[in-house]
Amino acid sequence: MKLFVTGAAGFIGSNVVDRLLSEGHEVVGFDNFVTGRREFLENAGKLPTFAMTKGDLLDTESLRSAMAGCEAVVHLAANADVRFGLDHPGRDLEQNTIVTFNVLEAMRANGIKRLIFSSTGSVYGEPEVFPTPEDAPFPLQTSLYGASKLACEGMISAYCTGYGFQATIFRFVSILGERYTHGHVFDFVRALRRDPSRLRVLGNGEQRKSYLYVGDCANAVVMVLDHPPVGVDVLNLGTDEYCQVNDSIGWICARLGVHPAIEHAGGERGWVGDSPFIHLNCGRIRALGWTPSLSIRQGVEKTVDYLQANRWVMDPLA
After folding, report:
1. Catalytic residue among 145, 211, 213, 306
2. 145 flagged as catalytic
3. Confidence class of residue 316 from pLDDT cuts 50, 70 and 90?
4. Per-residue pLDDT reduced to its tens digit, 17-46
5. Residue 49: phi, psi to the nearest 5?
6. Taking a C-beta distance cutoff of 8 angstroms, is the pair 15, 214 a contact?
């Protein structure tokens, strides 16, 4: 199958590209390289089944042209700067919602009807049901990121109904692993490289979070290609466990061999919109045969090892 992958040079995107290529698919990558890294596509670029287009999803003409001839779209590009959403309120709308509309219209122009989309567990806001299933009642939205992704889901569902699209929507927990470029492990490792004697932590460290190894995420994307839904299918993607932020700090420090003084900022949230408890019910995708290969702790440790071995990723400190 010939697949069009947005955000192909990013953390998740480049891992998905490599996984798709290893399965024999042909891949056309699309990325503006604002946060994506060309180095992440070094192996993919050696293969004749991979082609890369530098472009912006806001440029509808170049998007339609690059997508021509593909059979399905894996839409992973997004503004992932969740923590600072309130500082740039237009960014989530533009880089998540509007570009998703552009992707849908480019698909329609090219006669492509199969879509895999990366949404987020943040759309659940602060739910009352744990582990949270896909059909949980939606509370008020608590972050601009989650709200923009929920708007994307609504548009995708409408295109499935109106134009006969087939869409798989993944609601991810936080992903970590090789090529990781943002998030709590990245921030803590970088901070401890600066000063291994102390670590400042947003919130009280008791926030309960679920994380997933990027290789397991890529495996899920590949697997659902063989399970096209009728209309739209929404799947939570995560592990069956969660940890406290303090647990993760302990694993990171042990891996680095440091013993910093921990300074908690206090409060149950790290920032406005930060959900203090994320734990998704992933029974639906498990019923399709998918299962994670690594625990949260193993995923955190592999991420630390990768950042230590590839310090250039943490520029300008490298």
Report:
1. 145
2. yes
3. low
4. 999 999 999 999 999 999 999 999 999 999
5. -90, 5
6. yes
